């Protein structure tokens, strides 16, 4: 594969993840935003441990999906920044581990704990109670990212996601 073809393949994979993130968020709008949320697109955070390109795919997808957020530009900035940080941290920490289940466990823990940023945003902008919102958003994040870890683990048995 030539360098140009490799670059096109990388961009295509990144764009596909971004598009999938947008579709999974917008298709379930009532569940994707607010103090109680199950954003199914967060399942894709697990992709970050396989290749850094997926960090960008998920982050760009989040930016675009947040166009539909009732918090508008604030969510586009802070929600997207949170996604970038948590997927990058997941990738960074997982690089020290060999076991795929351990790496996926890192994603679950990092993403669940990082739910504080969404809770803070909802608290500051929407007057939602911080701790209760942290709990409800954290439960949603834990649930969707754990489901995504199972799906990603099964998918990786059939397809090498690092390529």
Unreliable sequence segments = none
Radius of gyration: 15 Å
Query: Helicity level, as a percent range?
Result: over 70%
Q: Which CATH C-level class is it?
A: Mainly Alpha
Number of discrete domains: 1
CATH topological fold name: Arp2/3 complex 21 kDa subunit ARPC3
On the 0-100 scale, what is the average pLDDT? Answer: 95
Number of strands: 0
Strand residue percentage: under 5%
Order of helices and strands: HHHHHHH
**Class by SSE composition:** mainly alpha
How would the global form be characterised? globular
CATH architecture: Orthogonal Bundle
Count of individual helical segments: 7
What's the short version?
With 163 residues, the chain is mainly alpha-helical.
Provide structural commentary.
The protein has seven helices and no strands. It has a single domain, classed as Orthogonal Bundle (Arp2/3 complex 21 kDa subunit ARPC3). It has 163 residues and is mainly alpha-helical.
